[in-house]
Amino acid sequence: MRAVGSGLRDRRGRGKQTRSRRRTWLWLIVLAAILALAVCGCGGSAGGARRSSARASVCTARARSVVARSLGVSASEVSVRVTTANSGSPECDFTAQPGGQGKVKLSVEVNTAPQPYAFLERSAVEASQMFGPVRLAPPPQDITGLGLDADWFPEEQHLMTTDGVRLITATVVWPSVRQSLRRALAEVAARPYLGRLRPDLARGPAP
Questions:
Q1: How far apart, in Å, do the first and last CA atoms of the chain sit?
Q2: How many domains are contained in the chain?
Q3: What span, in angstroms and rounded, lies between the C-alpha atoms of 193 and 150?
Q4: Residue 130 C-beta-side C-alpha neighbours within 13 Å
Q5: CA neighbours within 13 Å on the CB side: how many for 91?
Q6: Which of 31, 57, 83 corresponds to the end of one domain?
Q7: How does pLDDT run across 69-90, given as a tens digit for each residue?
Q8: Using CA atoms, how far apart are residues 130 and 167, in angstroms rounded to an integer?
Q9: I want to staple 81 with a disulfide (CB 3.0 to 4.6 A). Which of 50, 93, 132, 144 is the partner?
Q10: Mean pLDDT of 130-142
Q11: Nearest-angstrom CA–CA distance, 18 and 203
């Protein structure tokens, strides 16, 4: 009987040790999951903060002042709104109504995706191509003295330029004026967003 009792006690002891080890492993797994979630949360917060900062900086006081001066109105008469372009890049929308010239809507997108120069050159080449005997859309117009390169795209009514690091796209909706005024406004609006020119990054167009 003593042998049987001793065996039972041994088995009970081993069972308690096994359950204890299982609880310890469960606690370790739970702790690891909590730590992983905390790390992901911090990373997400940092990424969100960077995106928020980029969005907030796209509507600058300098850009608003430049646009207002070009339209002949005060800065307070130009409303601005931070939005997100279709590309996911931050964008600033400017709205004004200069006397006798109708309502103006201007948007400036700041895209920091890689190879902006190559993208601009490829866009200009593609828009210049003809796929039939008759051109259905006007070709892009080269603009000198703005960024590493710049083009006005009449079909889209927008201007694209780059400093080698960022691609700036200024789109103008101003139906009551001639195209030359829309193009001039786009040039003025894009300029404040250009940084130091980086000719070493002027590579393209990509194949």
A1: 88
A2: 2
A3: 13
A4: 7
A5: 17
A6: 57
A7: 999 999 999 999 999 999 999 9
A8: 25
A9: 93
A10: 82
A11: 65
Per DSSP, the chain holds a count of helices (H) and strands (E) of 4, 7
Burial class (CB in 10 A: 0-12, 13-18, 19+), 153: buried
Map tokens 């911090």 to a residue: 42
pLDDT per residue as tens digits for the range 52-64: 555 558 999 999 9
pTM for this structure? 0.73
Q: Compute the residue count for the chain.
A: 207
Instruction: Count Cα neighbours of 179 within 13 Å in the Cβ-side half-sphere.
Output: 11
Instruction: Tell me the pairing of strands 79-84 and 149-153.
Output: unpaired
Both structure tokens of 129: 């191509």
* Full residue range of the structural domain in which residue 26 is found: 1-57
| Contact between 140 and 66 (Cβ < 8 Å) | no
Name the E strands within the chain.
Answer: 79-84, 90-96, 104-111, 141-142, 149-153, 158-162, 167-173
CB 74, CB 99: distance < 8 Å: no
Distance CA 88, CA 189 (A): 20
Q: Tell me: do 47 and 66 sit in the same domain.
A: no
Asked if 169 and 111 touch (Cβ cutoff 8 Å), the reply is yes
In a domain, 206, yes or no: no
User: Pick from 31, 162, 184: which is nearest to 172 by CA?
Assistant: 184
